[in-house]
Amino acid sequence: MTQATHSNPSDAFNLTQALKDAGFAGMVTFGLCVPIVAFRAEQDMANKLVLQQRWWMALVITGLVVVARFLFSLHQHSRRNEHAQETSAGVTNALALIKPYLAPLGFGFITIYPLVMLAMHGPGGSIKWIDNFGIQILIYVMLGWGLNIVVGLAGLLDLGYVAFYAVGAYSYALIATKVIPQTFPFLGVWAFWICLPISGLLAALWGILLGFPVLRLRGDYLAIVTLAFGEIIRLVLINWVDFSNGYAGLSSIPRPSFFGIPFNASDTGFAAVFGLEFSPIYRTIFLYYVILVLSLMTAYVTLKLRRLPVGRAWEALREDEIACRSLGINTTITKLTAFAIGAMFGGFAGCFFAARQGFISPESFVFLESAQILAIVVLGGMGSLFGVVVASIALVGGIEILRELDFLKEVFGPTFDPSQYRMLVFGVAMVLMMLWKPRGLISTRDPSVIYKERKAISGSMVQEGHG
Amino acid sequence: MTTPLLKIEHLTMRFGGLVAVNDLSFDVHKGEITALIGPNGAGKTTVFNCITGFYKPTEGRLGLKHPDGKTYLLERLPDHHINWKAKVARTFQNIRLFQGMTVLENLLVAQHNPLMLASGYSILGLLGSKSYLKSEKAALDKAVGWLERINLIDRADDPAGDLPYGDQRRLEIARAMCTDPVLLCLDEPAAGLNPRESLELNALLTSIRADGQTSLLLIEHDMSVVMAISDHVVVLDYGVKISDGAPEEVRNDPRVIAAYLGVDDDEVAAVEAEVGL
Q1: Residue A450 near chain B (CB below 8 Å)
Q2: What part of B 83-122 touches A (C-beta under 8 Å)?
Q3: Which of these three, A51, A67, A82, is where a domain ends?
Q4: Which of A71, A411, A414, B190 has its CA 20 to 30 A from that of B7?
Q5: Is A169 in the same domain as A306?
Q6: Could you report the per-residue pLDDT of B201-258, keeping only the tens digit for each?
Q7: How close is the nearest chain B Cα to the Cα of A279, in Å?
Q8: Based on the domain organization, do A149 and A225 belong to the same domain?
Q9: Cα–Cα distance between A309 and B115 in angstroms, integer?
Q10: Which domain holds residue A36?
Q11: Are A447 and B102 within 8 A, CB to CB?
C-alpha cells in the first residue's frame, strides 16, 4: 500500500509510511467511533433517555485498528519481498513433508480425545468438552464430508442439504417413538441400530426424489431449487402436525444403547453391567465413538469411491458435462448417485443427531444449517476431506470457543456476550478466506490414479462445476 | 468402395426457421477417412452433433451398421448410448478435456462404462474384488498404451489443462479412442496446430485407419490435412451437399471452387443456375 514500495518492491521497510497509514486509519476509526460508540443513549428507570459516555471503548477499538493496520503494512512488505521465492510449489512441498505424519497423529488424537478430556476435567466437567466440541464438530465433519460428494466432487451446488439431515432425524424419531413400540416393543433397546440404516436409505431416496426434477438445471437455478427443497421439507415438518408434531417437535426419542445395554441407572444399565459408578459421561463418550466411526466410514467410502469409475465420473461431470456425454457416461444416473450417496450420509448424521439430542424440532433444520455445512465444504477446499475437518474445527469449534472467552468481559463490560458476535466472526472469517485462499484451505486436487509420481493438481486448473 | 458403415439419409436439422442442414445424404465407408468440409456456417458441426446425439435431427435417418451386422439408428438412441452401444466417439472443435484431472485419469474416464460393469456398479469395487482390480489394471494398460502411442507417457501424471495445445488435441483423440469406437468423429482436429504438429496428427489418424477397427469422419479447414489423408470428401454449403467424391474430384469441382472462392460477377447467374440456387 505504501507509495514508496510500489516503485521498488524489494527496498527496506518504510516505517514512517506504515505509521502514517496506521495513524490515518486510527483517525478515521476514531472519527467514526465518536458518534457510534463513544455516546450511547440508554433508557433509565424513568424511561428517560440518558447519554452514556464510553470513551474508553472508542479508544480500545481505535487502538486495535491502528495495530491491525500497522501489522497489515508489515505483512504486505514481507509478502512483496518473499514473493520471488514463495511459489505454490514450495507450499505444496512443505505440506507433502508433514503429510505422512498428519493422518496418524490426527487419528490418534481424535481416538483418545474423550479419555484425555475425562482425565483433565473429571466426569462432570468433561461432558461439555466431549459433547459441545467433540461430538458437535464430528457431526459437522460428517455432514461436510457427505455434502462434499455432491458439491466438491460432482460440482452440483446444493443449498438444501439440511433437508436430508432432517429426513434422517425424523425417520429415526418417528420410527423409534411410534412404529417400534407398537410393533416390536422388545426391539426398543436396539432402535438406534435398526433405524440407522433405514434413515440413511430414506434420505438417499429423498436425494433421488430431489435429483430427478433438478437434473436439467445448472448453476444458480439448481441452487435455488435445492434451497426451496430444504425449505419445503422444513415447512412440511412445521405444518403437518399429525405427522411430525409441528413446532413442538418430537421428544423423548430413545437414546442409543451400548449394543443392547441401555445407558441408565438401573441394574441392567451400562454402568451396573460393567461395574462402574453411574454417570451420564459414559453415554457421551459412547456417542462420541459412534459419530467418530460413522464419520470415518463416510471418509472411507468417499476415498474408495473417488478411485472407482463412479467417483471419476463425478469429477469428470464437474469438469465438463458435455465431454462426459460424448464418452457414453450416463449423466442422469451419475448425478443421481451423487445426490443419493451424499444424502445418505446426511441421513446417517441426522439419525445420530436425533439420538444424541433426544428431542428434535424443525428449528434445528433451518437454512442457516445448510449454509454452515456448505461454508465448511467451501472453506475446506472443494473435494478435500482434510480441508473439511480443518474448516469444521474452525467454524464449529471456533464458535463454541467464543462462549469460553470470559476475559473479554473485562474489556467490554459485564453485559458483553461474545457468542452473540458469532455471525460477525463467521462473516469476517469468510471474507478473509476468500481474499487469501479463494479455493479453500486445501486448494489442490489429489489425482485418483497415478502412473509414476503423485503430483497435486493446482486448484486454478480444477473446475468448480456449473451445477 | 467398401460397405457403408454409416448411412446418412435425408438428414434435416431446423432451429426454428433456420435450416442448418437440408436433406443431406452421404455414406461413411468402413476403414476410410471421410472428410466433411465447407465454408464457415455450412452446417458441418450440426451434422456432427446429430450423429453424436447432441441434437435430435428434425428429419432423416442415421443408420450405423456394425461389422457384426447389428444396425443402430443413431437418431433414436439416448445420447450416452451412442458412444456406449453404437460405438461412435467424437472430439470437439474447442477442446473439451477434463482439465483438472490428470492425463491418465482422462483416459480412464473414457473407459467408464466397461469399468462400471466390472466394478459391479461400484459394489464389487468398494469391496475390492479381484476381478475389478484386474479390469482396472487392463484399463490402465490400455490408457498407457495410448499415451505411448501419442507420445505423452512422460506427462501421464500432469493435469490435462497443463499440456500444450497440440498435445491436448492428441490427448482428446486418444481419449475418444479409449472407448473402442467403430466411428470416430473429429471436429477440426488440426485447428491451431503448427505444420509439424499437423504432420504428427496426419500420421496418428492414418495409423488409426490402418488398425482397421475404426473409421474416421472429420471436419477440417486445413486442406493440407484433408487432401493428404482422406479417402472421401463431402462438401457442404448452406446446409446442402454440393460435392461428394474422392479428394481429386472434389478439388476440381467448379461448385466447390465457387463456394470457397466465389465467382466473377458476370458468371454468377450461370453458376447459380448450375448449382440450382
Answers
A1: yes
A2: 83-84, 89-90, 92, 96-102, 104-105, 108-113, 115-116, 119, 121-122
A3: A82
A4: B190
A5: yes
A6: 888 888 888 888 888 899 988 888 888 888 888 888 888 888 888 888 888 888 888 7
A7: 40
A8: yes
A9: 6
A10: 3-82
A11: yes
